[in-house]
Amino acid sequence: MEEQHVKNKVGLGGLTGLIVGGTIGSGIFALPATLTAGANPEGILIGWAIVALGMFSLAGVYRNLTLQQPEIDDGIHGWSKHLFGDMGGFIANYGHGIGDAIGNASYLTVIFSALGGFSFLQIFGNGTTWPSIIGASILLWIVTGLVLKGIKTSTVMNNITTIAKVIPIAMFIILAILNFSPHIFLAHFSSTAVFDVASNHWLHVSIFDQSKSVLLSAMWTLIGIESGTIFATRAKKLSDVAKATNLGALFVIILLVGTSVLSLGLLAPNKISKLHDPSVAGLMEHMVGPWGGWLIYICLIVSVVGALIAWVNLCSEQLRVAGRGGSGAKWLAELNEAEAPKNALLVTTGLTQVLMIIAGLYSAGYAVLLKFSTSMAIVPYFFASLYALKSVVMGIGFKNLPTYKRLTSAIYAILATVFTLFMIFGAGLRYLLLGAIIWMTGFGFFYQGKKEKGLKLSKVEWFWWCVIALMAIAGIIGLLTGLLSFK
Protein backbone atom coordinates (compact mmCIF):
# COMPACT_ATOMS: atom_id res chain seq x y z
CA MET A 1 0.00 0.00 0.00
CA GLU A 2 1.40 3.44 -0.96
CA GLU A 3 1.69 6.13 1.69
CA GLN A 4 -1.17 8.62 1.55
CA HIS A 5 -0.02 12.25 1.61
CA VAL A 6 -1.98 14.98 3.35
CA LYS A 7 -3.04 17.83 1.06
CA ASN A 8 -4.46 20.32 3.56
CA LYS A 9 -1.55 21.87 5.50
CA VAL A 10 -1.87 23.89 8.74
CA GLY A 11 -0.21 27.27 9.44
CA LEU A 12 1.06 28.94 12.64
CA GLY A 13 -2.37 30.18 13.74
CA GLY A 14 -3.94 26.80 13.13
CA LEU A 15 -1.20 24.95 15.03
CA THR A 16 -1.43 27.36 17.98
CA GLY A 17 -5.19 26.91 17.96
CA LEU A 18 -4.74 23.13 18.00
CA ILE A 19 -2.43 23.41 21.01
CA VAL A 20 -4.73 25.76 22.96
CA GLY A 21 -7.84 23.83 21.90
CA GLY A 22 -6.30 20.47 22.70
CA THR A 23 -4.91 21.62 26.05
CA ILE A 24 -7.62 23.78 27.60
CA GLY A 25 -10.56 21.47 28.02
CA SER A 26 -12.38 20.04 30.99
CA GLY A 27 -9.26 20.19 33.15
CA ILE A 28 -9.26 23.93 33.77
CA PHE A 29 -12.94 23.98 34.77
CA ALA A 30 -12.50 21.17 37.31
CA LEU A 31 -9.00 22.15 38.45
CA PRO A 32 -9.74 23.83 41.83
CA ALA A 33 -11.51 20.81 43.37
CA THR A 34 -9.15 18.33 41.71
CA LEU A 35 -6.09 19.97 43.30
CA THR A 36 -7.57 20.74 46.73
CA ALA A 37 -8.73 17.11 47.07
CA GLY A 38 -5.18 16.26 48.13
CA ALA A 39 -3.38 19.49 48.93
CA ASN A 40 -3.44 22.92 50.57
CA PRO A 41 -2.03 26.13 49.02
CA GLU A 42 1.68 25.50 49.73
CA GLY A 43 1.56 21.95 48.35
CA ILE A 44 -0.37 23.18 45.29
CA LEU A 45 2.13 25.95 44.58
CA ILE A 46 5.10 23.57 44.90
CA GLY A 47 3.36 21.06 42.63
CA TRP A 48 2.64 23.75 40.05
CA ALA A 49 6.25 24.94 40.16
CA ILE A 50 7.48 21.40 39.43
CA VAL A 51 4.94 20.78 36.66
CA ALA A 52 5.34 24.20 35.02
CA LEU A 53 9.15 23.88 34.95
CA GLY A 54 8.90 20.31 33.68
CA MET A 55 6.35 21.04 30.96
CA PHE A 56 8.23 24.15 29.81
CA SER A 57 11.33 21.97 29.59
CA LEU A 58 9.38 19.43 27.52
CA ALA A 59 8.11 22.22 25.28
CA GLY A 60 11.74 23.27 24.83
CA VAL A 61 12.68 19.69 23.94
CA TYR A 62 9.91 19.52 21.31
CA ARG A 63 10.91 22.89 19.87
CA ASN A 64 14.62 22.08 19.68
CA LEU A 65 14.21 18.61 18.20
CA THR A 66 11.72 19.90 15.61
CA LEU A 67 14.08 22.66 14.44
CA GLN A 68 17.38 20.78 14.77
CA GLN A 69 16.24 17.52 13.17
CA PRO A 70 13.58 18.49 10.58
CA GLU A 71 14.09 15.18 8.76
CA ILE A 72 12.15 13.54 11.63
CA ASP A 73 8.75 14.95 10.76
CA ASP A 74 6.52 12.80 12.99
CA GLY A 75 7.40 14.15 16.44
CA ILE A 76 7.38 11.83 19.45
CA HIS A 77 7.02 8.72 17.28
CA GLY A 78 10.10 9.54 15.21
CA TRP A 79 12.25 10.50 18.20
CA SER A 80 11.27 7.39 20.14
CA LYS A 81 11.90 5.22 17.07
CA HIS A 82 15.38 6.69 16.61
CA LEU A 83 16.05 5.97 20.28
CA PHE A 84 14.61 2.47 20.77
CA GLY A 85 13.70 1.28 17.27
CA ASP A 86 10.26 0.27 16.02
CA MET A 87 9.09 -0.86 19.45
CA GLY A 88 10.02 2.47 21.04
CA GLY A 89 8.12 4.38 18.36
CA PHE A 90 5.09 2.14 18.65
CA ILE A 91 4.92 2.13 22.47
CA ALA A 92 5.24 5.92 22.50
CA ASN A 93 2.56 6.72 19.96
CA TYR A 94 0.15 3.87 20.66
CA GLY A 95 0.35 4.43 24.41
CA HIS A 96 -0.02 8.19 24.04
CA GLY A 97 -2.87 7.82 21.57
CA ILE A 98 -4.80 5.40 23.78
CA GLY A 99 -4.00 7.58 26.79
CA ASP A 100 -5.70 10.44 24.99
CA ALA A 101 -8.62 8.11 24.25
CA ILE A 102 -8.89 7.57 28.02
CA GLY A 103 -8.78 11.35 28.31
CA ASN A 104 -11.78 11.47 25.99
CA ALA A 105 -13.63 9.28 28.49
CA SER A 106 -12.90 11.88 31.18
CA TYR A 107 -14.15 14.64 28.87
CA LEU A 108 -17.43 12.78 28.41
CA THR A 109 -17.68 12.22 32.15
CA VAL A 110 -17.31 15.91 32.98
CA ILE A 111 -19.76 16.96 30.23
CA PHE A 112 -22.51 14.90 31.84
CA SER A 113 -21.38 15.93 35.32
CA ALA A 114 -21.95 19.52 34.17
CA LEU A 115 -25.42 18.56 32.95
CA GLY A 116 -26.02 16.97 36.35
CA GLY A 117 -25.30 20.37 37.91
CA PHE A 118 -28.69 21.62 36.64
CA SER A 119 -31.44 20.73 39.12
CA PHE A 120 -33.71 19.31 36.41
CA LEU A 121 -30.94 17.01 35.08
CA GLN A 122 -29.69 15.47 38.33
CA ILE A 123 -30.20 12.02 36.81
CA PHE A 124 -26.71 12.47 35.28
CA GLY A 125 -25.10 12.84 38.73
CA ASN A 126 -21.30 13.06 38.64
CA GLY A 127 -21.09 11.77 35.06
CA THR A 128 -20.75 8.05 35.85
CA THR A 129 -24.41 7.12 36.34
CA TRP A 130 -25.79 4.77 33.69
CA PRO A 131 -27.93 7.48 32.04
CA SER A 132 -24.67 9.44 31.73
CA ILE A 133 -22.80 6.45 30.27
CA ILE A 134 -25.53 5.88 27.67
CA GLY A 135 -25.69 9.56 26.74
CA ALA A 136 -21.89 9.83 26.62
CA SER A 137 -21.66 6.78 24.37
CA ILE A 138 -24.12 8.27 21.90
CA LEU A 139 -22.22 11.58 21.90
CA LEU A 140 -18.88 9.78 21.44
CA TRP A 141 -19.98 7.98 18.28
CA ILE A 142 -21.65 11.11 16.88
CA VAL A 143 -18.38 13.03 17.32
CA THR A 144 -16.44 10.15 15.75
CA GLY A 145 -18.79 10.29 12.76
CA LEU A 146 -18.20 14.05 12.44
CA VAL A 147 -14.42 13.57 12.52
CA LEU A 148 -14.71 10.88 9.85
CA LYS A 149 -16.50 13.50 7.73
CA GLY A 150 -13.56 15.88 8.12
CA ILE A 151 -15.10 18.26 10.69
CA LYS A 152 -11.67 18.65 12.28
CA THR A 153 -10.74 21.07 9.51
CA SER A 154 -13.40 23.61 10.58
CA THR A 155 -11.64 26.81 11.70
CA VAL A 156 -14.99 28.33 12.68
CA MET A 157 -15.74 25.47 15.09
CA ASN A 158 -12.30 25.70 16.66
CA ASN A 159 -12.70 29.46 17.13
CA ILE A 160 -16.12 29.02 18.76
CA THR A 161 -14.93 26.40 21.21
CA THR A 162 -11.77 28.39 22.04
CA ILE A 163 -13.87 31.49 22.78
CA ALA A 164 -16.22 29.39 24.92
CA LYS A 165 -13.19 28.31 26.96
CA VAL A 166 -11.21 31.52 27.23
CA ILE A 167 -13.95 34.13 27.89
CA PRO A 168 -15.53 32.46 30.98
CA ILE A 169 -12.10 31.61 32.39
CA ALA A 170 -10.91 35.19 31.83
CA MET A 171 -14.11 36.41 33.52
CA PHE A 172 -13.50 34.02 36.42
CA ILE A 173 -9.91 35.25 36.85
CA ILE A 174 -10.99 38.93 36.87
CA LEU A 175 -13.78 38.25 39.41
CA ALA A 176 -11.45 36.09 41.51
CA ILE A 177 -8.91 38.93 41.66
CA LEU A 178 -11.63 41.32 42.82
CA ASN A 179 -12.95 38.85 45.42
CA PHE A 180 -9.60 37.43 46.51
CA SER A 181 -9.13 37.23 50.28
CA PRO A 182 -5.52 37.01 51.55
CA HIS A 183 -6.89 35.81 54.89
CA ILE A 184 -8.61 32.78 53.30
CA PHE A 185 -5.55 32.08 51.16
CA LEU A 186 -3.12 32.13 54.11
CA ALA A 187 -5.37 30.48 56.71
CA HIS A 188 -4.56 26.94 55.51
CA PHE A 189 -1.39 27.77 53.54
CA SER A 190 1.02 25.28 55.16
CA SER A 191 -1.50 23.03 56.87
CA THR A 192 -0.88 19.26 56.79
CA ALA A 193 -4.58 18.56 57.45
CA VAL A 194 -6.31 17.57 54.18
CA PHE A 195 -10.00 16.72 53.90
CA ASP A 196 -10.61 13.44 52.06
CA VAL A 197 -13.95 13.70 50.26
CA ALA A 198 -14.21 9.95 49.59
CA SER A 199 -13.95 8.95 53.27
CA ASN A 200 -15.36 12.23 54.65
CA HIS A 201 -12.44 12.40 57.10
CA TRP A 202 -9.49 14.68 57.74
CA LEU A 203 -6.08 13.17 56.97
CA HIS A 204 -2.54 14.16 57.93
CA VAL A 205 -0.56 14.63 54.69
CA SER A 206 2.98 16.00 54.51
CA ILE A 207 3.71 18.96 52.25
CA PHE A 208 5.83 16.69 50.03
CA ASP A 209 2.99 14.20 49.60
CA GLN A 210 0.57 17.07 48.98
CA SER A 211 2.74 18.43 46.18
CA LYS A 212 3.11 14.90 44.80
CA SER A 213 -0.69 14.50 44.71
CA VAL A 214 -0.90 17.63 42.57
CA LEU A 215 1.49 16.40 39.87
CA LEU A 216 -0.72 14.11 37.76
CA SER A 217 -3.75 16.41 37.97
CA ALA A 218 -1.73 19.52 37.08
CA MET A 219 0.17 17.75 34.32
CA TRP A 220 -3.13 16.54 32.84
CA THR A 221 -4.19 20.11 32.19
CA LEU A 222 -0.99 20.69 30.20
CA ILE A 223 -1.14 17.57 28.05
CA GLY A 224 -1.69 18.86 24.56
CA ILE A 225 1.23 21.30 24.34
CA GLU A 226 2.89 18.69 22.11
CA SER A 227 -0.07 18.81 19.71
CA GLY A 228 1.99 20.80 17.23
CA THR A 229 4.62 18.06 16.94
CA ILE A 230 1.96 15.38 16.61
CA PHE A 231 0.57 17.28 13.61
CA ALA A 232 4.05 18.12 12.29
CA THR A 233 3.43 16.08 9.13
CA ARG A 234 0.46 18.39 8.39
CA ALA A 235 2.29 21.69 9.11
CA LYS A 236 3.08 24.17 6.31
CA LYS A 237 6.46 24.92 7.92
CA LEU A 238 8.28 23.01 10.66
CA SER A 239 9.41 26.34 12.14
CA ASP A 240 5.72 27.08 12.80
CA VAL A 241 5.53 23.97 15.00
CA ALA A 242 8.23 25.37 17.30
CA LYS A 243 6.65 28.85 17.49
CA ALA A 244 3.18 27.43 18.13
CA THR A 245 4.49 25.22 20.94
CA ASN A 246 6.00 28.25 22.72
CA LEU A 247 2.96 30.49 22.27
CA GLY A 248 0.47 27.79 23.24
CA ALA A 249 2.40 26.68 26.34
CA LEU A 250 2.79 30.23 27.69
CA PHE A 251 -0.85 31.19 27.15
CA VAL A 252 -2.21 27.97 28.65
CA ILE A 253 -0.01 28.01 31.76
CA ILE A 254 -1.04 31.59 32.60
CA LEU A 255 -4.71 30.63 32.49
CA LEU A 256 -4.26 27.38 34.43
CA VAL A 257 -2.13 28.75 37.26
CA GLY A 258 -4.30 31.86 37.49
CA THR A 259 -7.48 29.82 37.85
CA SER A 260 -6.18 27.33 40.41
CA VAL A 261 -4.22 29.76 42.63
CA LEU A 262 -6.83 32.53 42.74
CA SER A 263 -9.56 30.05 43.73
CA LEU A 264 -7.63 29.42 46.97
CA GLY A 265 -8.45 32.95 48.06
CA LEU A 266 -12.20 32.47 47.60
CA LEU A 267 -13.00 29.43 49.75
CA ALA A 268 -11.11 27.13 52.13
CA PRO A 269 -9.54 24.10 50.39
CA ASN A 270 -11.86 21.59 52.12
CA LYS A 271 -14.90 23.52 50.86
CA ILE A 272 -13.55 23.71 47.30
CA SER A 273 -12.87 19.94 47.24
CA LYS A 274 -16.55 19.25 48.05
CA LEU A 275 -17.86 21.26 45.09
CA HIS A 276 -19.68 19.48 42.27
CA ASP A 277 -17.58 19.09 39.12
CA PRO A 278 -16.81 21.37 37.37
CA SER A 279 -15.79 23.19 40.56
CA VAL A 280 -15.22 26.55 38.81
CA ALA A 281 -19.02 26.69 38.43
CA GLY A 282 -19.48 26.45 42.20
CA LEU A 283 -16.88 29.16 42.75
CA MET A 284 -18.55 31.43 40.19
CA GLU A 285 -21.89 30.89 41.90
CA HIS A 286 -20.24 31.76 45.22
CA MET A 287 -19.04 35.08 43.76
CA VAL A 288 -21.99 36.27 41.62
CA GLY A 289 -24.92 33.95 42.27
CA PRO A 290 -26.62 31.10 40.35
CA TRP A 291 -26.21 32.67 36.90
CA GLY A 292 -22.44 32.38 37.23
CA GLY A 293 -22.67 28.63 37.75
CA TRP A 294 -25.05 28.24 34.81
CA LEU A 295 -22.68 30.24 32.60
CA ILE A 296 -19.78 27.93 33.43
CA TYR A 297 -21.88 24.79 32.89
CA ILE A 298 -23.02 25.99 29.46
CA CYS A 299 -19.57 27.19 28.37
CA LEU A 300 -17.97 23.97 29.60
CA ILE A 301 -20.39 21.83 27.61
CA VAL A 302 -19.77 23.86 24.43
CA SER A 303 -16.00 24.02 24.89
CA VAL A 304 -15.50 20.43 25.95
CA VAL A 305 -17.55 19.08 23.06
CA GLY A 306 -15.24 21.14 20.85
CA ALA A 307 -12.19 19.80 22.68
CA LEU A 308 -13.58 16.29 22.33
CA ILE A 309 -13.67 16.73 18.56
CA ALA A 310 -10.03 17.91 18.63
CA TRP A 311 -8.94 15.09 20.91
CA VAL A 312 -10.78 12.31 19.05
CA ASN A 313 -8.84 13.48 16.01
CA LEU A 314 -5.60 13.88 18.00
CA CYS A 315 -5.48 10.42 19.54
CA SER A 316 -6.32 8.70 16.25
CA GLU A 317 -3.64 10.80 14.53
CA GLN A 318 -1.05 9.35 16.89
CA LEU A 319 -1.99 5.80 15.92
CA ARG A 320 -1.95 6.87 12.25
CA VAL A 321 1.61 8.16 12.67
CA ALA A 322 2.68 4.79 14.16
CA GLY A 323 1.30 3.04 11.08
CA ARG A 324 2.73 5.64 8.68
CA GLY A 325 6.17 5.40 10.28
CA GLY A 326 6.32 1.61 9.97
CA SER A 327 6.17 0.85 13.70
CA GLY A 328 2.63 -0.49 13.43
CA ALA A 329 0.36 -2.03 10.83
CA LYS A 330 -0.21 0.07 7.70
CA TRP A 331 -3.92 -0.50 8.32
CA LEU A 332 -3.70 2.13 11.07
CA ALA A 333 -2.43 4.75 8.60
CA GLU A 334 -5.26 4.47 6.08
CA LEU A 335 -7.13 7.72 5.40
CA ASN A 336 -10.63 8.09 4.00
CA GLU A 337 -11.68 10.62 1.36
CA ALA A 338 -11.94 13.32 4.07
CA GLU A 339 -8.32 12.61 5.10
CA ALA A 340 -9.44 11.17 8.44
CA PRO A 341 -7.59 8.10 9.82
CA LYS A 342 -10.64 5.85 9.61
CA ASN A 343 -9.18 2.66 11.10
CA ALA A 344 -7.23 4.38 13.85
CA LEU A 345 -10.45 6.20 14.79
CA LEU A 346 -12.31 2.91 15.21
CA VAL A 347 -9.57 1.62 17.53
CA THR A 348 -9.37 4.71 19.74
CA THR A 349 -13.13 5.30 19.90
CA GLY A 350 -13.72 1.62 20.64
CA LEU A 351 -11.30 1.75 23.58
CA THR A 352 -12.87 4.99 24.84
CA GLN A 353 -16.23 3.21 24.78
CA VAL A 354 -14.83 0.30 26.81
CA LEU A 355 -13.35 2.75 29.34
CA MET A 356 -16.72 4.50 29.70
CA ILE A 357 -18.39 1.19 30.55
CA ILE A 358 -15.64 0.31 33.05
CA ALA A 359 -15.98 3.78 34.61
CA GLY A 360 -19.69 3.09 35.07
CA LEU A 361 -19.08 -0.33 36.62
CA TYR A 362 -16.45 1.00 39.06
CA SER A 363 -18.09 4.43 39.53
CA ALA A 364 -14.69 5.83 38.57
CA GLY A 365 -15.12 9.54 38.12
CA TYR A 366 -13.31 12.30 36.28
CA ALA A 367 -10.24 12.43 38.58
CA VAL A 368 -9.42 8.72 38.16
CA LEU A 369 -9.71 8.84 34.37
CA LEU A 370 -7.56 11.94 34.04
CA LYS A 371 -4.78 10.43 36.19
CA PHE A 372 -4.85 7.22 34.14
CA SER A 373 -4.68 9.23 30.92
CA THR A 374 -1.80 11.34 32.23
CA SER A 375 0.18 8.27 33.31
CA MET A 376 0.00 6.93 29.73
CA ALA A 377 1.60 10.14 28.41
CA ILE A 378 4.58 10.09 30.76
CA VAL A 379 6.46 7.25 29.01
CA PRO A 380 6.36 8.92 25.54
CA TYR A 381 7.51 12.16 27.17
CA PHE A 382 10.36 10.25 28.83
CA PHE A 383 11.41 8.72 25.50
CA ALA A 384 11.44 12.16 23.81
CA SER A 385 13.50 13.62 26.65
CA LEU A 386 16.00 10.75 26.50
CA TYR A 387 16.37 11.16 22.74
CA ALA A 388 17.01 14.88 23.20
CA LEU A 389 19.70 14.01 25.75
CA LYS A 390 21.24 11.48 23.35
CA SER A 391 21.21 14.07 20.56
CA VAL A 392 23.09 16.57 22.73
CA VAL A 393 25.71 14.01 23.79
CA MET A 394 26.28 12.73 20.24
CA GLY A 395 25.95 16.12 18.56
CA ILE A 396 23.01 15.07 16.38
CA GLY A 397 21.45 18.12 14.69
CA PHE A 398 24.02 20.64 15.96
CA LYS A 399 26.19 20.92 12.85
CA ASN A 400 26.95 24.58 12.06
CA LEU A 401 25.12 25.70 15.22
CA PRO A 402 26.84 27.83 17.90
CA THR A 403 27.96 26.13 21.14
CA TYR A 404 25.38 27.92 23.28
CA LYS A 405 22.57 26.23 21.30
CA ARG A 406 23.90 22.85 22.31
CA LEU A 407 24.26 24.00 25.93
CA THR A 408 20.70 25.31 26.18
CA SER A 409 19.40 22.15 24.50
CA ALA A 410 21.29 20.11 27.12
CA ILE A 411 19.65 22.05 29.96
CA TYR A 412 16.17 21.48 28.50
CA ALA A 413 16.88 17.78 27.93
CA ILE A 414 18.25 17.17 31.44
CA LEU A 415 15.38 19.00 33.14
CA ALA A 416 12.78 17.17 31.03
CA THR A 417 14.38 13.76 31.70
CA VAL A 418 14.52 14.33 35.47
CA PHE A 419 10.93 15.61 35.44
CA THR A 420 9.51 12.65 33.53
CA LEU A 421 11.38 10.17 35.74
CA PHE A 422 9.93 11.90 38.81
CA MET A 423 6.46 11.75 37.23
CA ILE A 424 6.81 8.00 36.60
CA PHE A 425 7.69 7.61 40.28
CA GLY A 426 4.78 9.86 41.26
CA ALA A 427 2.25 7.91 39.16
CA GLY A 428 2.99 4.71 41.09
CA LEU A 429 2.74 1.00 40.32
CA ARG A 430 -1.05 0.96 39.86
CA TYR A 431 -1.08 3.11 36.74
CA LEU A 432 1.99 1.34 35.36
CA LEU A 433 0.20 -2.03 35.53
CA LEU A 434 -2.98 -0.56 34.07
CA GLY A 435 -0.87 0.99 31.31
CA ALA A 436 0.66 -2.40 30.51
CA ILE A 437 -2.86 -3.73 29.82
CA ILE A 438 -3.34 -0.89 27.32
CA TRP A 439 0.02 -1.50 25.62
CA MET A 440 -0.76 -5.21 25.18
CA THR A 441 -3.90 -4.38 23.18
CA GLY A 442 -1.55 -3.02 20.51
CA PHE A 443 0.72 -6.05 20.23
CA GLY A 444 -1.14 -7.37 17.18
CA PHE A 445 -0.67 -4.07 15.34
CA PHE A 446 3.06 -4.03 16.14
CA TYR A 447 3.50 -7.69 15.08
CA GLN A 448 1.66 -7.03 11.81
CA GLY A 449 3.78 -3.95 11.15
CA LYS A 450 6.97 -6.01 11.45
CA LYS A 451 5.48 -8.70 9.22
CA GLU A 452 4.58 -6.18 6.54
CA LYS A 453 8.23 -5.09 6.42
CA GLY A 454 9.37 -8.71 6.11
CA LEU A 455 10.93 -8.66 9.57
CA LYS A 456 10.62 -10.77 12.70
CA LEU A 457 10.60 -9.51 16.25
CA SER A 458 14.12 -9.32 17.67
CA LYS A 459 15.06 -11.05 20.92
CA VAL A 460 15.10 -7.67 22.67
CA GLU A 461 11.62 -6.86 21.40
CA TRP A 462 10.29 -10.26 22.49
CA PHE A 463 11.86 -9.73 25.92
CA TRP A 464 10.18 -6.37 26.46
CA TRP A 465 6.82 -7.56 25.15
CA CYS A 466 7.04 -10.48 27.60
CA VAL A 467 7.77 -8.03 30.44
CA ILE A 468 4.79 -5.90 29.40
CA ALA A 469 2.61 -9.04 29.14
CA LEU A 470 3.57 -10.14 32.67
CA MET A 471 2.77 -6.65 33.98
CA ALA A 472 -0.56 -6.71 32.16
CA ILE A 473 -1.43 -10.13 33.64
CA ALA A 474 -0.54 -8.81 37.10
CA GLY A 475 -2.78 -5.81 36.47
CA ILE A 476 -5.72 -7.96 35.35
CA ILE A 477 -5.34 -10.31 38.32
CA GLY A 478 -5.14 -7.29 40.62
CA LEU A 479 -8.37 -5.86 39.18
CA LEU A 480 -10.21 -9.20 39.42
CA THR A 481 -9.09 -9.90 43.00
CA GLY A 482 -9.55 -6.34 44.22
CA LEU A 483 -5.85 -5.90 45.05
CA LEU A 484 -5.68 -3.25 42.33
CA SER A 485 -8.44 -0.68 42.23
CA PHE A 486 -9.52 1.28 39.18
CA LYS A 487 -11.03 3.94 41.45
UniProtKB/TrEMBL annotation:
GO molecular function: transmembrane transporter activity
Main location as per UniProt: membrane
Membrane topology value: Multi-pass membrane protein
Subcellular location per the Swiss-Prot or TrEMBL entry: Cell membrane
Name of one Pfam family that matches: AA_permease_2
Gene3D superfamilies per the UniProt record, alphabetical: Amino acid/polyamine transporter I
TM stretches of this protein: 12-31, 43-62, 105-124, 130-148, 169-194, 214-235, 247-268, 294-314, 344-366, 378-398, 410-442, 462-486
UniProt KW keywords: Cell membrane, Membrane, Transmembrane, Transmembrane helix
Superkingdom assignment: Bacteria
InterPro entries the UniProt entry points to: AA/rel_permease1, APC_superfamily
Cell membrane in keyword set: yes
GO cellular component terms, semicolon-separated: plasma membrane
Protein name: Arginine ornithine antiporter
Species per Swiss-Prot/TrEMBL record: Lactobacillus psittaci DSM 15354
Phylogenetic classification of the source organism: Bacteria, Bacillati, Bacillota, Bacilli, Lactobacillales
